Amino acid sequence: MPIRALCTICSDFFDHSRDVAAIHCGHTFHQQCLIQWSETAPSRTCPQDRIQVGKKTIINKLFFNLAQEEESVLDVEFLKNELESVEAQLSQKDREKWDNSTLSWIRPS
Fold first, then answer.
1. Alpha-carbon torsion 92, 97, 98, 104, what sign?
2. What's 78's DSSP letter?
3. What is the separation, in whole angstroms, between the first and last Cα of the chain?
4. CATH superfamily of 20-106
5. pLDDT digits (tens, 9 = 90+) for 35-94
6. What's the Cα-to-Cα distance from 54 to each of 35, 57, 88, rounded to whole Å?
7. Is 15 exposed, middle or buried (0-12, 13-18, 19+ CB in 10 A)?
8. What is the DSSP secondary structure assignment for residue 55, as one 8-state letter?
9. d(CA 109, CA 28)
10. Domain residue spans in the chain?
11. In a designed cystine with 21, which of 31, 49, 92, 96 is the match (CB 3.0 to 4.6 A)?
């Protein structure tokens, strides 16, 4: 059975589109999520167990050997994540369009 791992910072599954990083306590995250966490958190700790983390204890890029069937599962998850992202962007654009049309109707030129 394939391992379905996710980043506990952003709650997205790991896939081939983003690098994965690890901390010495063993927890793994998207590399970019971990970078943002370390830049914004009040103290440098693991997002899961709050163990102190130094920059030298972060493994910046992990590599996984995936079986062919696991790659297809990851592709499905990647596409689901992409679809959700595009739907959110579309929804935001629709809201902006609605707001702009409402404002132009309220305030005639």
1. positive
2. H
3. 62
4. Zinc/RING finger domain, C3HC4 (zinc finger) (3.30.40.10)
5. 898 888 888 889 898 888 877 878 888 877 766 655 565 577 788 888 999 999 999 998
6. 12, 5, 35
7. buried
8. G
9. 54
10. 20-106
11. 31
